[in-house]
Each structure stands twice: as C-alpha cells, then as structure tokens.
Design a protein that fits this description.
By secondary structure, the chain is mostly helical. It is built from 7 helices and 2 strands.
Length: 139
C-alpha cells in the first residue's frame, strides 16, 4: 500500500522531471517558496528556529486530529522553496506515515549534488526536525 507521503514524493519527482535543466528547477523551487503562506512574526522565535541551516529557518508543528501540520519560513529564497516541498510532503500527514517513509525524493531529485553543502545540511536539519516532531507526536 502506498502511503500519502510516498504518493506526494512521486508527484514531486514527476513534476521535476518536466524541467530540462537545473536552472529551471532552481527557479521552480524559488517560485514555490514565494507562495508559502504568511508566517506570523511572533512565531519567529529562537525556540522555533532550526539549527544547522545557513539561513534563518523557523518551523512550527501542530498536531490536530491525529495528523501533523507544519508551518515554516526562511529568509532565503531557495530554502523557502525547499520548505514548500517539505510542507507539501509532510504537512497534514499522520506521524507514523512520516516516520515510515524515507525521504527518497532527495536522491531522486539529486538535490544533494545540486545544492551547496550548507543548503544540503539545512535540508537534512529540516528533515530531522520533521521526523523529530513525528516521533514525539506518535509517542
């Protein structure tokens, strides 16, 4: 059985396959970031900041009806785009689904080889945070 997260990963990989080159993919990621919902100023606290990201990243999780909902923002355009991808994959999902699905999209999209090492570390930090929230919510 395909989980919601796996299905979302497949959709994203298919979308990215439509782009000829990495400049188009970068532009698409940046455009996704521009469409992130407004992130309230009062949530931009040290407590909500993700460590390990070169840019500022604020991330909040909320559990409702057995599902996790995430909101996040960054001060960097490309990172905001990565956040948009992560929210699309993981927000509104059951914690168990998040924990049981490995982030294969990172490899499928070759993000590691196309992001700078600091951006790659930031992506890993955000993924760790999401899995941490999921583990906490599942417990």
């Amino acid at each position: 059985m395909t989980s919601e997260v796996q299905a979302a990963q497949r959709e994203i990989v298919e979308e990215f396959s439509l782009f000829e080159d990495w400049m188009d993919r970068y532009q698409y990621i940046i455009d996704l970031g521009r469409r992130l919902p407004e992130f309230p100023e009062e949530l931009r606290t040290e407590e909500n900041r993700i460590r390990g990201c070169q840019s500022q990243v604020w991330f909040v999780a909320e559990k409702r009806d057995g599902r996790l909902y995430f909101r996040a923002i960054s001060d960097a355009a490309i990172v905001s785009g990565l956040i948009a991808l992560l929210l699309r994959l993981y927000s509104g999902r059951e914690p168990q689904d998040i924990l049981e699905t490995s982030p294969d999209f990172v490899q499928a999209l070759q993000l590691e080889s196309h992001l700078s090492p600091t951006r790659s570390n930031g992506l890993s930090s955000m993924l760790r945070a999401i899995r941490g929230y999921a583990a906490e919510a599942a417990a």
